């Protein structure tokens, strides 16, 4: 194997460590410094992905053999990175040849002290089994909510199967048929997902053709769950919709598609930076019906309106995103869950004040914890008897827990999308 992908991955990890950004963002920034081939970039992405999953297992294994204090950061990272990849099944071929190529390419940056520990890599080759690839609290949590066997399948599935790419067509810019024809001409295979209309599975290895369509704003990539949430809410042309915690605007954009760019969407988010990028994105996608407001939704919202439909998509612990972002498993801590839960309840309560009688509100998170979902819904219904949970007309995924049959839960291993929770409420009086 060409050592460039490994060196690129090490540089990305170094940037992560210095700045705290995610490995995928770091890889993007580091890869701009030099010309890399598509093959090297793809391999580096695969290496970092595998490292995210198996880092803890590799590190535990190494700790048993070698004391942490004996290694500097670069040596430790190289050892952990290569070990993670070996455990994760990446075939580096002959490890001695790989190491000698790495030594040559890194030149004076090659850490001399690593030389005496290289035997460990050969040892790992002969002992590839992995004990734990998730924090114990997360494994236990899943076992509690879905049973041991299902939890095991879920966790293993996330690490074994790549997430699919979903797309929607921008009919605000061009007719559906014309976009599909352009896609066909570029060898981009779009297969309609038969669970809900208007969402496509991208089945193509022609990334250039795909990027081309995205750069023209003709298709957008997002998870299945985002469109499902909007389809459940059923926004219609000429309605007034409030979108709370809206940035970067995926649900705003999908709502505008359903409304055929007619009516008004009021988008609220607390981050000015994210609002600015949402506005840019909406202009690019030809969305003409959005008014943005910067506001903290944990406080009463600065509007005096009752609207047809409300979307509440507050920040969450992101436990449902581990399939796409394997690194998150080591970042999310149990204390975040409780913190988000309080925050979400406040945002839901403030947003609900703007639903008109007979109007609808959708509450969604990309977390699978009970605290951020069922508990928030139960507390809300307890203090707002004028709202009721409604069964969505499109029934995908599984029921909510704790007897909330009308709520929906989506999981990677059963629904091929992010872990997601959705509850649809109607204001009765
Ligand atoms: C899960 S993201 C929303 C994703 C968005 N709905 C979409 O579909 O693209 C959560 C958003 O909540 C915003 N946010 C965080 N705290 C907030 C608060 N107190 N009030 C309003 N928005 C907040 C964040 O800036 C972030 O953009």
Structure commentary:
- It is a single chain.
- The strands form 2 sheets. Strands 5, 6, 7, 8, 9, 10, 11, 12 and 13 form a 9-stranded mixed β-sheet that branches. A 4-stranded antiparallel β-sheet has the order 2-3-1-4.
- The protein has 16 helices and 13 strands.
- The N and C termini lie far apart (66 Å).
- The protein folds into 3 domains: 4-125, NusB-like (N-utilizing Substance Protein B Homolog, Chain A), CATH 1.10.940.10; 166-221, Sun protein, domain 3 (Alpha-Beta Plaits); 225-427, Rossmann fold (3-Layer(aba) Sandwich).
- The longest helix has 28 residues, at 38-65.
- The protein has helices at 4-19, 23-31, 38-65, 73-87, 95-106, 119-125, 136-146, 148-160, 176-185, 207-215, 224-233, 250-258, 272-284, 334-352, 374-383, 412-415; strands at residues 166-169, 190-192, 200-202, 219-221, 239-244, 263-269, 290-294, 307-312, 355-365, 387-390, 398-399, 408-410, 420-427.
- The chain has 429 residues and is an alpha/beta fold.
- The chain is 45% helix and 15% strand.
- Helix 1 (4-19) packs across helix 2 (23-31), helix 2 (23-31) packs across helix 3 (38-65) and helix 14 (334-352) runs parallel beside helix 15.
- The mean pLDDT is 91.
- Bound molecules: S-adenosylmethionine.
- S-adenosylmethionine binds at residues 226, 245-251, 269-271, 274, 296-298, 313-315.
